[in-house]
């Protein structure tokens, strides 16, 4: 629950909706959310009007049908980490690198699945970790699927903070790299997000041809060479394309190609 110092109207509404999963009366919800009863009643009335709650009578409420509708609408996206595991397992076996699946969330990506390589080390990445788009292989692969104006608008919002001494912090230089990413079909991270770690990444597209995230393979730089980087990059691009096709992506929008950002995004 959000702290009182920054508890917005949206926070209060979500707190009531979450409490409604286990409590029924205004008094109970007021107690667990620390909200005044009139506020809880007002929020519940709005939830009832919008279909997210139902009034059962005698001051009792329960969840409404709109909750199930939203679950159904988002089930595919929510279940993507499980759907992608077989593809990630194949990719890990092929590359012998640690592999990830990340979902695009606003102006960043978030690791949704990770399979460690059978190596004598473990990478610091973890499920739930947020990723900057300009400094990671997954992020750059997603940016390469966007029109240039969209990339520049995003960079204006987020900035390009340096994660390591190798991070690109100049938009013009990044745009040049994104053109190379499209030609290769995958993005490279040469210790730009984490010192000592290199990675390759490729975007994943949904049924509409929109990049919704990406796959990556990563290892310690001391465990690899340029030949291995290129081979793993091609493997990641192929795996991402296969998974995109299972999501219904059009064949011409299931991977990076030169000029792709000029198409629908």
Automatic annotation (TrEMBL):
<dbReference type="InterPro" id="IPR014757">
    <property type="entry name" value="Tscrpt_reg_IclR_C"/>
</dbReference>
<protein>
    <submittedName>
        <fullName>IclR family transcriptional regulator</fullName>
    </submittedName>
</protein>
<dbReference type="InterPro" id="IPR036390">
    <property type="entry name" value="WH_DNA-bd_sf"/>
</dbReference>
<keyword id="KW-0238">DNA-binding</keyword>
<dbReference type="InterPro" id="IPR050707">
    <property type="entry name" value="HTH_MetabolicPath_Reg"/>
</dbReference>
<feature type="domain" description="HTH iclR-type">
    <location>
        <begin position="7"/>
        <end position="65"/>
    </location>
</feature>
<dbReference type="InterPro" id="IPR029016">
    <property type="entry name" value="GAF-like_dom_sf"/>
</dbReference>
<dbReference type="InterPro" id="IPR036388">
    <property type="entry name" value="WH-like_DNA-bd_sf"/>
</dbReference>
<keyword id="KW-0804">Transcription</keyword>
<dbReference type="Pfam" id="PF09339">
    <property type="entry name" value="HTH_IclR"/>
</dbReference>
<feature type="domain" description="IclR-ED">
    <location>
        <begin position="66"/>
        <end position="249"/>
    </location>
</feature>
<dbReference type="InterPro" id="IPR005471">
    <property type="entry name" value="Tscrpt_reg_IclR_N"/>
</dbReference>
<keyword id="KW-0805">Transcription regulation</keyword>
<dbReference type="Pfam" id="PF01614">
    <property type="entry name" value="IclR_C"/>
</dbReference>
């Amino acid at each position: 629950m959000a702290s009182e110092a920054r508890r917005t109207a949206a926070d209060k509404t979500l707190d009531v909706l979450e409490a409604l999963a286990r409590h029924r009366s205004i008094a109970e919800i007021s107690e667990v959310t620390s909200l005044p009863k009139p506020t809880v009643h007002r929020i519940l009335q709005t939830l009832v009007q919008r279909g997210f709650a139902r009034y059962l009578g005698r001051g009792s409420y329960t969840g409404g049908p709109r909750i199930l509708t939203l679950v159904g609408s988002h089930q595919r996206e929510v279940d993507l980490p499980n759907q992608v595991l077989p593809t990630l397992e194949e990719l890990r076996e092929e590359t012998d690198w640690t592999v990830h699946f990340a979902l695009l969330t606003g102006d960043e990506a978030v690791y949704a699945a990770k399979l460690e390589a059978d190596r004598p080390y473990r990478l610091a990445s973890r499920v739930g970790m947020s990723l900057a788009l300009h400094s990671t292989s997954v992020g750059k692969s997603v940016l390469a699927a966007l029109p240039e104006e969209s990339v520049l608008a995003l960079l204006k919002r987020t900035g390009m903070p340096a994660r390591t001494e190798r991070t690109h912090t100049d938009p013009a230089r990044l745009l040049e790299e994104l053109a190379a990413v499209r030609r290769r079909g995958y993005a490279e991270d040469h210790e730009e997000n984490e010192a000592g770690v290199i990675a390759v990444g490729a975007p994943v597209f949904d049924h509409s041809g929109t990049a919704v995230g990406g796959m990556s393979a990563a290892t310690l730089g001391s465990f690899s060479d340029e030949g291995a980087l290129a081979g793993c990059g091609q493997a990641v691009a192929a795996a991402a394309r296969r998974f995109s096709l299972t999501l219904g992506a059009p064949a011409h929008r299931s991977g990076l190609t030169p000029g792709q950002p000029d198409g629908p995004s």
